[in-house]
Amino acid sequence: MSASSVPPPARRFPPRIPGPLRRLRLPRLPRPLKRALIAAFALAVAGAIALTLSRLDWGVVGVLFTRRDPAQITLLLAGALVASMAGLSFGFLAWRVVLLEIGPPVSEPRVVRIFFVGFLSKYVPGRVPGIIAITKVATANGVTFARLISTAAVVMSLVLLSGFTVGLLAGVQMLGAQAAWLAGAAVLIVVVLVRPQLINHGSALLLRLLRRPTAAKAASVRGVRLAVGWQSLSWVVTGLHLWPLAIAMGAPAARSLALCVGAFTLATTIGIAAVFIPDGIGVREAVLTAALSVVLPAPAAAVVAVASRLVSTVSEVLLGAAALAVAEYLIRRGRAAPGHPAQPPAPQATASIDGAT
């Protein structure tokens, strides 16, 4: 075969970026300016977290200490904090599974960096700074914007499905004999475990309707099932933090265990679904108070709901700060190999300011 008869190689075009993603181009900045902006954003996050912590009702801690021996309350609060941090860690593992399933390998410290930068950025007022920050961090660490948003879509689907399923534990006690019909709500999570591809198809369809980019690769059957398992475990363990708080206020230990796990999961899931309310503030407390009123007087249930918000926020800050510190140490020591971008980096500096991660 002559050289002239060999077909020319197919041209490789960069992926077409939908119109909404061309609204904002994140420029390449000089290194000194880039470092200054990173430092400024870190200070903004730290300031926002400090402001959030200062606005929490720390008076509930004093109320708890009036109910029991100080040593017992200290132990119960420590248990609540550990359970909350452990549950959040399992939630990270669910996100990690999906992220690594739909793209090239990324080193563990860089995966931690991407997740927890986005996780702590939620405390900064307004959505735009957090979106820009997580997009820049992700692309700088080998994760494209399409891969990032596809991961978010899949994980959010799993969070809602598993959350409403685990939340049935509260419905059983709240509705008593009339709760049998709630079993139907668990059908969706069973369907997902049997046909995990439905999550990929649904997430891809949603992103197409929103005109957002999708990752070139979908999560595997095993990956979706593993993520469902981690996320369900995350709900159960995180919900356990409510139990020692309820016991501190006088709830019966045996009767309140399943109720606390289900109530926290249901309340948080409803708060997440209420997308127009930041972090579900108010919604979560209202649902928690109503559910805990089954085992506690309404005023005591309200104290537990407020204490839950305090414990959850402190655990998020402690876990996020510790994880980022370890990740940054490992990356700076050179133990973390750079991520492997799936596409040329130039188009990935493009993001939509109204996108969601």
Any key phrases for this structure?
357 residues; mainly alpha; two-stranded antiparallel sheet; 2 strands; disordered N terminus
Secondary-structure blueprint of this entry?
Elements: E1 24-25, H1 31-55, H2 59-65, H3 70-101, H4 108-121, H5 128-140, H6 145-166, H7 168-175, H8 187-194, H9 197-209, H10 221-239, H11 242-248, H12 253-273, H13 283-292, H14 298-332, E2 350-351
Antiparallel strand pairs: 1-2
Helix pairs in contact: 2-14, 3-6, 3-10, 3-11, 3-14, 4-5, 4-14, 6-9, 6-10, 6-12, 7-12, 10-12, 11-12, 12-13, 13-14
How would you sum up this structure, described in words?
There is one protein chain. This protein is an all-alpha fold and about 350 residues long. It contains 14 helices and two strands, in the order βααααααααααααααβ. The protein has helices at about 30-55, 60-65, 70-100, 110-120, 130-140, 145-165, 170-175, 185-195, 195-210, 220-240, 240-250, 255-275, 285-290, 300-330, and strands spanning about 25, 350. It has a two-stranded antiparallel ribbon with strand order 1-2. The longest helix is centred in the C-terminal third of the chain and has 35 residues, at about 300-330. The termini are far apart. The model is unreliable at about 1-25 and about 340-355 (pLDDT under 50).
